[in-house]
C-alpha cells in the first residue's frame, strides 16, 4: 500500500485532509477491514473523475468486501473527520461522484439480489448491482426493472437511486423515485435505518419523517409557487413527497414513502445498504416507428402530438448524432436502416404491449398522424425485434457518440437536462439554439422528447474560454427554463455543475429547508459534502479536469515524441461547423497521443459485460485499474504531469497497462474511439526504452526471424512440452508458464514443403490480373507457416479449387513478417523494418489490384491498422486497401458472383469463436457467411470476449490465471457444452486456448472448407 501526495491543487471547499490524517485513515482501514485499500496517487487519480468535466483527487479508495467493511469505514472516517463518498459505476454526468473524500466503491462486491418477491413484484438488491445484470436475472420470471437508462450496461442501482435516474421509457414508467419501495441505509452516526412507507417506520425514521413533514407545512406556499410541475425534476431533495408536485405522483395511492427522500440525494444524506425496487411486467411485444423530419423544429413540434398516441418512448436523434453514428463502423449499418434520405432529425416512437398484432394499428396511427402533420412517407416501420434492438443500442450510445468529436472542444454537459412542458419544446429549443449561436457554438441534441427533456451540449473548449461561456449560456438557458415553467435539472442530477442552481430554482426558503434535511440526517456533513448543500460554483476552473490557464494549476501536457503517428488526433474542431483542421495542427506537445488519450470522457462503456469484446481484463478482475477507462485516466494523469515526474514510464504505469491484452475491443466498442491496444504499444516502446527488454521479450519478438532455423531441429525444442524439468526451467528463466503447453515445432513448414507448381511468380500473377483472371496473394504468416502449415495448404487448395491463381511472398532464409510480435513487445523500430519489407514485397501486387489474403487475424489486420501509423507512407495505405482475411475475401467474391465451390454437406453443429481483432474490424459476419456455403451448416457464434491467450499473454506465468479466467468466462463452457460440435476459430492463440482448456480441436475456417471439398 502506497500513500502518495497528488500534485493537483485542490480549491477551497475540496481540500484534502492533512497527510497525517490520510495516513491514519489508510492504516486503520488496512487493519480493520478486509477490503482493498488504495491510497497511491494513480489509484486515487482513477477515482478523481466521473463522466463530467470535473476532477477532484479523493483522499483514498476503499473497495469493501463485506457490509462490516462499509460500516467500519464509516466509523473510522467519522472518527478522523474524513468525508465519505459512495460510488457505483462512476458514470455521473455532473460530478456527483468526485470529491476530496474517502471513495467507497460498491461495484465490485456488492452486486447481489438479496430477495425476489414474485407475489409483490419487488426485488431487494445491493447498491452495486448493474441494471442490465439485474434485468437478466428477472427476465426468466417475465419481469424487469423499467428505469432503462442509456448506461444500463454499466450503471449501478445505487448510483441510479442517487441521481433519481429516468430513462427512455419514463413517460410510461416514471423516474427512479416512482419505482422504489424501500431502502436500508447507514446514517453518519453509524445507525442502520430502514426507509419505507411512513405507516411502518421505526423510531429513527419516524423522527426524520416528522421533521420533513413539518418543513413541508412551513413552506407549503413556497412549494406550490416555485416547485416545477414536470415529472422530470430531480434537483434538490424530494421535499414534496408530503405534498406531491409532480405530474406523476410518487405512489399510486398517494401515500408517503420515506425511501423517496433518499432518491436523488446524491449520497449526501445516508449510505445505501440495499434498495427494494418495484418491478414491471416485461413487455411481450414492441414495434418501432422511426419518423424522419426535414427540420429539427418540426421534430420538436411534433412530439406533443405523438405522445397522445400512447407510446412507451419518443426519443430524438439529431443530425449531428446521425452523422457521427454513420461515421462509426459499429453503428453505420444500423443507422442506415432508419433513414429516409438525409433527415435533419429522427424520432424513435415505440409502442409495447402483449402481442405484435395489437400494436400494428398503433404504427398505422403514427403514419396517419404524420400525414396529417404534413409529413407523409416519413415513417420507417420496424416490426421485427432485431432491428429495433440494434437501433435502441445506437440511441443508448448517443451521449458517448457525441463525445467522439476530435480536438480540445467537446460537447459539455451542464444544461442538458432542462425539462420543459411539451407544448413549449419547439420554442425552447429554438431559443437555446440562438443562445449557443451568440456564444460562438452550437448544440448537439438527443434524448427524451416524450417528456420534454432534451440532452443538449454546446461545444466548448474548457482549457480556454469554456468556463466563461458555460456561465453565460447557463444564465440565458435558465431564463428560458423559467419562461417556459420548466425544471433546470431534469435527469442527471445536480452534482457540481447544477448544484448552485438549486437556490435559483426553488428560492432561498426552500433551499434552507433542504439544508435542514441535510442537517437532520447528516449533521456532521460526512456524506459527499459540497453536493446539493453549499455546492461550489459550476465554473470554478480549479475543479475542471482540464483546468484553464487562469486556474491555480492549469492543465498541461508534458513534451513527448511518440513512436507511432497520432497526428490524426492532433487537430482542432470548429465549434459551429465541427470541421477539423489538418492532422498535426492541434498544438499537442505529444504529437496527438495525449489528445487520443483524452478522448476518454469516463462514460464507463468499457464496464459492460454484454456481447462484444471490451474489456476482457475488467470482466475478470472488476478492478478500475484494469479497465480501458482506468488505463486512459492513468495515462492522462501521467502525461499531464499530475502523477509526478517520469510517471509515464514508471512501474505503476506498467502495472496499469499490464493486463491490457491488445484485443482492440475498445477500438470498435468504445463510442469515443479510445484505442488502448495501440496506446499500449506506444507506452511499451517508451517503457522498454527506459527499462530494457527481457530475454523473454526478445525471444518472442524475434520468433519470425529464427523460426526457419528452429524448424530444422523441432524435436529438440519440443522437449520443452514433454520434459517436466524443461517446463520448470522455462518458467524460471523465461517466465513462460509450466502449466501451459507451447506450440509444437515441425520440420515440414509451409515454405519448406511448398511445391513450386502451386504458386505463380509475381510477374505471372500481375500479368494474369491484367488479363482479368482471378488472382490472389496468399499471405502466410509466421504461425500458420511454421506451426500449423495445414491451414495454409488448406487455404491454397480451397482458393485453387475455386479457380484462383495464387502467389505467395517469400524471402531468402525465411519469410516476410508483419511485425506483430515486435509491436507486442514495444519494439516499434524493428516492427517498422519488418512490416516495411513486407509492404515493399506486396506493393507491386497491390498496385495491380490483386487482393492480399491472410489467415491469421492479428497478422493480416496489422496491415490495415498499425502499419498505417508507422511512417511507411502511401504504400502502406495501398497495401492496406487490398488486405483481406480469408473469409472476408471469399464472402466478397461470393457476393460478386466470382466464387463457386462444390462442397459436401455437414451434419454436425458448428460453433464459431471470433478472434478479437476480427470483432474489432467487423470481420466475424463474413465467417458465418462462408460457413453457410457448406450444405447443412448452421453455424452458431459463441458470445465471448477475448479467449485469454492474446498472443504471448496467456503463455506467461504471471498471466496464466487471468488468461484462464478470461477463457472460462464464456468460451470454454460453451465449447464443453457442445461435445458434438465442430469448433471453428481462426486465431492461432484461440485454437491453442481451446485445446489447452477444453481438450478440443478447433479448426481454421480454411480447414473446414477444405475438408468439405468434393474430391
UniProtKB/TrEMBL annotation:
Its cofactor is FAD. Residues 54-282 form the FAD-binding PCMH-type domain. Pfam families: CCG, FAD-oxidase_C, FAD_binding_4, Fer4_8. Residues 650-680 form the 4Fe-4S ferredoxin-type domain. The keyword Ubl conjugation does not apply. InterPro entries: 4Fe4S_Fe-S-bd (IPR017896), 4Fe4S_Fe_S_CS (IPR017900), Cys_rich_dom (IPR004017), FAD-bd_oxidored_4_C (IPR004113), FAD-bd_PCMH (IPR016166), FAD-bd_PCMH-like_sf (IPR036318), FAD-bd_PCMH_sub1 (IPR016167), FAD-bd_PCMH_sub2 (IPR016169). It comes from the Bacteria. The keyword Transmembrane does not apply. Keywords: FAD, Flavoprotein, Iron, Iron-sulfur, Metal-binding, Oxidoreductase. This is FAD-linked oxidase C-terminal domain-containing protein.
Amino acid at each position: 500500500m502506497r500513500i502518495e501526495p497528488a500534485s493537483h491543487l485542490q480549491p477551497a471547499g475540496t481540500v484534502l485532509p492533512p497527510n497525517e490524517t490520510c495516513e491514519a485513515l489508510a492504516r486503520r482501514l488496512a487493519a480493520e477491514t478486509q477490503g482493498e485499500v488504495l491510497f497511491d496517487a494513480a489509484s486515487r487519480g482513477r477515482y478523481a473523475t466521473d463522466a463530467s468535466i470535473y476532477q477532484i483527487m479523493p483522499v483514498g479508495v476503499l473497495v469493501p468486501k463485506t457490509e462490516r467493511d462499509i460500516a467500519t469505514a464509516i466509523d473510522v472516517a467519522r472518527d478522523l473527520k474524513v468525508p465519505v463518498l459512495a460510488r457505483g459505476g462512476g458514470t455521473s454526468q455532473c460530478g456527483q461522484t468526485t470529491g476530496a473524500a474517502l471513495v467507497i466503491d460498491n461495484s465490485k462486491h456488492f452486486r447481489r439480489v438479496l430477495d425476489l418477491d414474485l407475489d409483490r413484484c419487488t426485488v431487494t438488491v445491493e447498491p452495486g448491482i448493474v441494471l442490465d445484470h439485474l434485468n437478466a436475472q428477472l427476465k426468466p420470471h417475465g419481469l424487469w426493472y423499467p428505469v432503462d437508462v442509456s448506461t444500463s450496461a454499466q450503471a449501478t442501482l445505487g448510483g441510479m437511486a442517487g441521481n433519481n435516474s429516468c430513462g427512455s421509457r419514463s413517460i410510461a414508467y416514471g423516474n427512479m423515485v416512482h419505482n422504489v419501495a424501500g431502502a436500508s441505509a447507514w446514517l453518519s452516526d453509524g445507525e442502520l435505518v430502514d426507509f419505507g412507507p411512513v405507516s411502518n417506520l421505526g423510531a429513527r425514521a419516524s423522527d426524520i419523517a416528522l421533521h420533513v413533514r413539518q418543513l413541508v407545512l412551513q413552506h407549503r406556499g413556497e412549494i406550490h409557487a416555485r416547485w416545477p410541475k414536470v415529472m422530470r425534476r430531480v434537483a434538490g431533495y424530494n421535499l414534496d413527497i408530503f405534498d406531491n408536485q409532480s405530474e406523476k405522483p410518487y405512489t399510486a395511492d398517494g401515500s408517503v414513502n420515506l425511501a423517496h427522500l433518499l432518491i436523488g440525494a446524491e449520497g449526501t444524506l445516508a449510505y445505501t445498504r440495499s434498495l427494494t425496487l418495484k418491478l414491471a411486467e416485461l413487455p411481450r411485444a414492441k414495434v418501432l416507428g422511426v419518423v424522419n423530419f426535414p427540420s429539427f423544429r418540426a421534430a420538436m413540434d411534433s412530439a406533443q402530438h405523438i405522445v397522445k398516441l400512447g407510446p412507451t418512448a419518443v426519443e430524438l436523434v439529431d443530425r449531428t448524432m446521425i452523422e457521427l453514428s454513420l461515421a462509426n463502423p459499429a453503428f453505420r449499418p444500423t443507422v442506415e436502416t432508419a433513414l429516409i434520405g438525409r433527415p435533419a432529425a429522427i424520432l424513435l416512437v415505440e409502442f409495447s404491449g402483449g402481442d405484435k398484432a395489437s400494436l400494428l394499428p398503433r404504427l398505422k396511427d403514427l403514419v396517419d398522424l404524420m400525414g396529417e402533420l404534413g409529413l407523409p412517407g416519413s415513417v420507417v416501420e420496424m416490426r421485427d425485434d432485431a432491428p429495433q434492438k440494434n437501433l435502441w443500442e445506437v440511441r443508448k450510445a448517443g451521449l458517448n457518440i457525441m463525445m467522439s468529436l476530435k480536438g480540445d472542444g467537446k460537447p459539455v454537459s451542464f444544461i442538458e437536462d432542462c425539462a420543459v412542458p411539451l407544448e413549449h419544446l419547439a420554442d425552447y429549443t429554438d431559443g437555446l439554439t440562438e443562445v449557443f449561436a451568440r456564444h460562438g457554438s452550437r448544440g448537439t441534441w438527443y434524448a427524451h422528447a416524450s417528456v420534454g427533456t432534451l440532452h443538449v451540449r454546446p461545444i466548448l473548449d474548457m482549457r480556454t474560454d469554456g468556463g466563461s461561456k458555460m456561465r453565460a449560456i447557463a444564465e440565458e438557458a435558465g431564463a428560458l427554463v423559467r419562461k417556459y415553467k420548466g425544471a433546470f435539472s431534469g435527469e442527471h442530477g445536480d452534482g457540481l455543475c447544477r448544484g448552485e442552481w438549486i437556490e435559483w430554482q426553488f428560492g432561498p426558503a426552500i433551499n434552507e429547508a433542504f439544508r435542514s434535511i441535510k442537517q437532520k440526517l447528516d449533521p456532521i456533513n460526512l456524506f459527499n459534502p459540497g453536493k446539493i448543500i453549499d455546492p461550489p460554483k459550476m465554473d470554478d476552473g480549479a475543479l475542471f479536469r482540464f483546468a484553464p490557464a487562469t486556474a491555480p494549476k492549469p492543465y498541461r501536457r508534458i513534451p513527448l515524441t511518440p513512436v507511432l503517428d497520432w497526428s490524426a488526433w492532433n487537430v482542432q474542431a470548429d465549434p459551429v461547423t465541427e470541421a477539423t483542421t489538418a492532422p498535426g495542427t492541434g498544438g499537442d506537445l505529444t504529437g496527438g497521443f495525449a489528445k487520443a488519450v483524452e478522448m476518454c470522457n469516463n462514460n464507463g462503456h468499457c464496464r459492460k459485460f454484454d456481447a462484444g469484446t471490451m474489456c476482457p481484463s475488467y470482466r475478470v478482475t472488476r478492478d478500475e485499474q484494469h479497465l480501458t477507462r482506468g488505463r486512459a485516466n492513468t495515462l492522462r494523469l501521467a502525461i499531464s504531469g499530475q502523477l509526478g515526474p517520469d510517471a509515464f514510464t514508471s512501474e505503476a504505469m506498467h502495472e496499469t497497462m499490464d493486463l491490457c491484452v491488445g484485443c482492440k475491443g475498445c477500438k470498435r466498442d468504445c463510442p469515443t474511439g479510445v484505442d488502448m491496444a495501440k496506446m499500449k504499444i506506444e507506452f511499451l516502446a517508451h517503457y522498454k526504452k527506459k527499462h530494457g527488454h527481457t530475454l523473454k521479450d526478445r525471444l518472442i519478438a524475434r520468433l519470425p526471424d529464427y523460426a526457419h532455423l528452429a524448424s530444422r531441429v523441432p524435436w529438440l525444442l519440443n522437449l520443452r512440452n514433454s520434459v517436466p524439468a524443461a517446463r520448470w526451467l522455462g518458467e524460471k528463466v523465461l517466465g513462460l508458464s509450466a502449466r501451459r503447453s507451447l506450440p509444437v515445432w515441425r520440420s515440414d513448414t509451409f515454405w519448406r514443403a511448398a511445391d513450386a507448381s502451386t504458386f505463380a511468380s509475381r510477374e505471372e500473377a500481375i500479368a494474369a490480373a491484367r488479363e482479368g483472371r482471378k488472382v490472389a496473394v496468399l499471405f502466410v504468416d509466421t504461425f500458420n507457416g511454421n506451426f500449423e502449415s495445414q491451414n495454409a495448404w488448406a487455404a491454397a487448395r480451397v482458393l485453387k479449387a475455386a479457380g484462383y491463381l495464387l502467389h505467395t511472398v517469400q524471402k531468402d532464409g525465411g519469410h516476410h513478417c508483419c511485425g506483430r510480435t515486435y509491436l507486442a513487445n514495444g519494439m516499434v523500430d524493428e516492427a517498422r523494418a519488418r512490416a516495411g519489407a513486407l509492404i515493399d514485397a506486396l506493393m507491386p501486387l497491390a498496385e495491380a489490384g490483386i487482393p492480399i489474403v491472410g489467415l491469421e487475424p492479428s497478422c493480416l489486420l496489422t496491415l490495415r491498422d498499425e502499419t498505417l501509423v508507422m511512417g511507411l507512407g502511401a504504400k502502406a495505405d495501398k497495401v492496406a486497401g487490398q488486405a483481406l482475411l480469408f473469409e472476408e475475401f471469399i464472402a466478397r467474391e461470393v457476393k460478386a458472383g466470382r466464387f463457386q465451390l462444390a462442397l459436401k454437406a455437414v451434419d454436425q453443429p458448428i460453433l464459431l469463436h471470433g478472434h478479437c481483432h476480427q470483432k474489432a474490424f467487423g470481420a466475424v459476419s463474413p465467417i458465418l457467411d462462408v460457413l453457410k456455403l457448406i450444405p447443412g451448416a448452421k453455424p452458431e457464434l459463441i458470445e465471448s470476449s477475448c479467449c485469454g491467450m492474446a498472443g504471448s499473454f496467456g503463455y506467461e506465468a504471471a498471466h496464466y490465471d487471468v488468461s484462464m479466467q478470461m477463457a472460462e468466462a464464456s468460451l470454454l463452457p460453451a465449447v464443453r457444452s457442445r461435445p458434438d460440435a465442430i469448433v471453428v476459430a481462426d486465431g492461432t492463440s484461440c485454437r491453442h486456448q481451446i485445446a489447452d482448456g477444453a481438450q478440443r480441436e478447433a479448426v481454421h475456417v480454411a480447414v473446414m472448407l477444405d475438408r468439405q471439398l468434393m474430391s
